[in-house]
Amino acid sequence: AQSVSQHNHHVILSEAASLELGCNYSYGGTVNLFWYVQYPGQHLQLLLKYFSGDPLVKGIKGFEAEFIKSKFSFNLRKPSVQWSDTAEYFCAVSRYSSASKIIFGSGTRLSIRP
Amino acid sequence: GAGVSQTPSNKVTEKGKYVELRCDPISGHTALYWYRQSLGQGPEFLIYFQGTGAADDSGLPNDRFFAVRPEGSVSTLKIQRTERGDSAVYLCASSLSGAQSTDTQYFGPGTRLTVL
């Protein structure tokens, strides 16, 4: 069965620090990859997604993620975080052949010190 | 237009009772999804509708859980004989067409179910 691992449960950074959140998945076939974000008191929303093509994907608010197939990884990055990036971040995967069923990781809580 | 809406926002019930949770998808979206999110976990897939039919119900945990979408729009998730372990936030999402892998799923605010 597919699974998604997010290694950092809680990350605390100061403003302007660089961010990298780890994500690994287990599935050998073709996958779709996602990062979702949930800001305090708000709905879960899509940050970025990878389906095919360039493995470096750019999303909203300056976030990007790189798909490294050989490492089964899809790490999220941002060069300089802001206080408003405080949120819960979820990595997720779906099989290309069953794109509707998204499997989520357990999430990483990001806290930014002003 | 309006996003995905879910009612009620909070539901408290007693063990053994029956509950219904409602989801209104984004207008025009043919695909609808239910997920369950327990404390400290990511959302867990339950069921996916394409139009009126359940295209994938592999995530429903047991036969106490059932969902319908009779007219291809609003969906109701029904839980019989609730147990304390059913306590979670139930999320609904919709997308334009579930058949396209590139479609984005848009999530609602969720219903927080507490079983006492």
Question: How does this model look, in words?
Answer:
The complex is a heterodimer of chains A (114) and B (116). With 114 residues, chain A is mainly beta. Chain A has strands at 3-5, 10-14, 19-21, 24-26, 31-38, 44-50, 56-58, 64-68, 73-78, 87-95, 98-104, 108-113. In chain A, 0% of the residues lie in helices and 57% in strands. In chain A, a hairpin with a 2-residue loop joins strand 10 (87-95) and strand 11. The N and C termini of chain A lie far apart (41 Å). Chain B has 116 residues and is mainly beta. Chain B has strands at residues 5-7, 10-13, 19-24, 31-37, 44-50, 53-56, 65-68, 75-79, 88-95, 106-107, 111-115. In chain B, strands 2, 4, 5, 6, 9, 10 and 11 form a seven-stranded mixed sheet that branches. Chain B is globular and about 40 Å long. The chains are: A mainly beta (114), B mainly beta (116). Chains A and B meet through strand 6, strand 10 and strand 11 of A and strand 4, strand 5 and strand 10 of B.
